[in-house]
Recover the amino acids of this structure.
């Protein structure tokens, strides 16, 4: 079926769509932080790269990457419809993610990137251990 909008109209419509809390990624990690008593994090902290969570005192930036939007090698898929567009879009997202990580590291931040599929089931405990271990390294070096 043909699109009822022009390319410019469709672009405006899609640009106006906003997320509703990222339940499968950010909110899942918020729940884990609360359940495992991980404190000191902030959301929407104003630093370059816009990480999903920042542990300011530990200089730790945490990104929760959706498997589709960030091109997960394990379970990310490319839609069949309009494939060239989606390949370019996801490739640019991957490139942006790498640039953000590099920029933050150059500024002295540690960066943890977590895939959406790692926020489900038993993998979530590994994510929590990884973040706790990263935070513990910071607390040991500041003593």
């Amino acid at each position: 079926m043909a699109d009822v909008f022009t390319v410019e109209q469709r672009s405006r419509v899609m640009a106006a769509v906003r997320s509703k809390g990222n339940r499968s990624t950010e909110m899942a990690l918020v729940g884990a932080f609360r359940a495992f008593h991980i404190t000191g994090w902030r959301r929407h902290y104003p630093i370059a790269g816009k990480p999903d969570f920042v542990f300011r005192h530990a200089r730790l930036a945490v990104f929760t990457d959706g498997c589709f939007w960030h091109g997960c090698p394990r379970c990310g898929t490319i839609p069949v419809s309009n494939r060239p567009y989606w390949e370019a879009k996801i490739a640019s997202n991957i490139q942006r993610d790498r640039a953000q990580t590099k920029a933050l590291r150059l500024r002295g931040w540690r960066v943890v990137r977590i895939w959406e599929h790692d926020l489900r089931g038993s993998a979530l405990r590994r994510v929590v251990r990884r973040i706790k271990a990263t935070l513990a390294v910071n607390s040991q070096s500041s003593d």
In short: The two ends are 63 Å apart (CA to CA). The chain has a mean pLDDT of 89. Helices lie at 7-16, 26-35, 83-106, 123-141. Residues 29 and 119 are 7 Å apart (CA to CA).
